[in-house]
Amino acid sequence: MKPTVCLFVLCIALFSFKAQAQCPTPQNIDTTGVTFYSFDIEWDSVVGAQLYQVVVDTTQGTPTQTQINNATVGPNVKFSGIGLISNMRYCVYVRANCGSSNFSNWASTCFSTKCLASYSPSYDSVTATSVNLLLGGVVKNNPETYEYIVDNSPATPTVTGTQTSNLKQTVGGLTSNTKYYIHARLHCPLSSFITAWSLDSFVTKGTTNIYSLGNDFEISVYPNPASETVNIRYKGQTIASYSIYNIIGKELISGSLRQESTVVNISSLPKGIYIMNLIASEKRHTLKLYKE
Asked: Rounded to whole angstroms, how far apart are CA atoms 111 and 53?
């Protein structure tokens, strides 16, 4: 009986040893379909695995307990992640659970999301001599560089612009009542990618411009640019008038100028540049009127 008992105990010991073997680590992790905000990943199926844990983070190293608590858990050997930040480096960690908290070691792979295919900054706080460029950026530590040029031509720049990592940039030294073009592009160092130049435009604010039509006539126009109405102040002893034309010479609005002040409603005009003629006693002054 004793050899039989010993053989039975040995069988139990061997069975216990096999049950405690660590769950195998996932192999052949492959990241595909990486865009500027998403990715797909898959790995070989682990024999005996019931579930898999997936952790996505911007740091490299063994996942912390907090990250593990927030891990995605499921039976599939594929995972899709969304809501990422463009031009950012991410690491994905995967481990298998063979049951009863028998976890494998973590397997990992890292990748960088793509740069935005297109880039469109904006602007605000336009004055007679300056503008604030809102260059963008989702987060401040996003390793992106912005390049911009502000000039008077809509043509694609052939020179290097000013580069900055600031999300907002003030450009000064501009001329009042003048149309400017903003050229900007995005540099993404992780993917060595530079977007095409984007294009936007604005018109600097105008001061109250006073025009003299001889010694006895004085006319001022404000604001310019304008969005709803334009005020024309006239000082003189003779009849005066105004006319507004589009750029191909078609008269759109006209009228007589009253002494002191005339309000001209331009709200119906599309945004753009117009020509205003001011006439008094056969004397004429022509100026550009900007509708915004």
From this structure: 19
